[in-house]
Amino acid sequence: MSKDKVKLVTPLGAETPLTAVKKAKTYLEALEAVQAELASLKGSVEALAKTLSGAAPETLEGVKQDLRGLVEGLKGEVVKLREELKTVKPGLRTTAEAKGLSELTGLTALSLEQRLTNLERTVSGLTAPLNELKAKALSAEQKLTSLEQALSGLVKPLDALTLKVLELDQRLRSSEQALNALLKLGSLTPEEVDKLVEAARRLPEAVELAEQKMRELGRLDVLRRMERIERRLKSMVKPEEVITPT
User: Fold this and answer.
1) b vs e for 197-226, b when ≥16 Cβ sit within 10 Å of the residue's Cβ?
2) How far apart are CA 150 and CA 168, in angstroms?
3) Rounded Cα distance, 204 and 187, in Å
4) Which of 160, 168, 147 is nearest to 219 (CA)?
5) Residue 28 C-beta-side C-alpha neighbours within 13 Å
6) Are 144 and 57 in contact (CB under 8 A)?
7) Domain match, 214 and 161 both
8) Could you give the 3-state DSSP secondary structure of residue 239?
9) How far is CA 70 from CA 74, 127, 151, in A?
């Protein structure tokens, strides 16, 4: 029997040459789809890194997690394709023996492995943009921490200012009560009453000026100022001029 009349019989349950070719083409199409998706994802990541340069830390962290999930998913696809390639190789060999290597141009196991290697390199290229996003998120977090520390440093001065304002309010209430007691005596002359009314009218202006100075300087001896105001009020009415009712 001559060699050209020998027929290759496919064992029961084994892949036929045509099935192996179709299977290899299917895996190549899947590989090309993953490569296209990776190329698009890489461009999106680079554009996204520029767009999110001033974004909040929580936004950067969410984007980083989403990208990491996509990369991990693509890596899983690469691993899956590499495992499937092991099952394609025997079918390719059988097909090559049956129909000749000339019919399998672009479908060899070497071509598949090369494309998988390129795909893995593309996946690795996403590491740099992810690291850049992580660095920007860390920088934003550090700036936020510095701002929180600066705001915490303002708490004590604000508390001190609030205390001074409360003390000033108490002194004003005391001065108002003293003024009302003087007016109830009924022994003051009209001129003295006019002086007290004018002093009482100017008192809010003096208090407002004192509060303004306190805000500007951050420190103001409110008690001393109020004592001087009280002494000025008392000096307007001499003790010997006050007639005590009998």
Assistant:
1) eebeeebeeebeebbeebeeeeebebeebb
2) 28
3) 26
4) 160
5) 17
6) yes
7) yes
8) helix
9) 6, 12, 39
> What's the domain range around 18?
3-151
pLDDT at 92: 54
Residue 246 inside a domain? The answer is: no
pLDDT score for 206: 75
Give the total number of structural domains in the chain. 2
Q: Centre a 10 Å sphere on the Cβ of residue 161 and count the other Cβ atoms it contains.
A: 16
Alpha carbons 23 and 20: distance in angstroms, whole number: 5
Of 178, 161, 176, residue with least CA distance to 222: 161
Provide the residue-wise pLDDT of the chain in tens; the chain has 246 residues.
334 433 334 443 445 555 656 666 676 777 777 777 777 776 676 666 666 666 566 666 676 677 777 677 777 777 776 676 666 656 555 554 545 444 444 445 556 667 777 777 776 776 777 777 777 777 777 777 776 677 677 677 777 777 877 787 787 777 777 767 666 655 666 777 777 777 777 777 777 777 776 666 555 455 566 667 667 666 665 555 544 444
Domain assignment present for residue 161? The answer is yes
Asked if 157 and 88 touch (Cβ cutoff 8 Å), the reply is: no
Task: Write the DSSP symbol of residue 102.
Answer: G
Amino acid type, 20: A
Q: Return the amino acid letter for 196.
A: L
Kindly report the backbone phi and psi dihedral angles of residue 48, in degrees, each rounded to the nearest multiple of 5, phi listed first. Answer: -65, -35
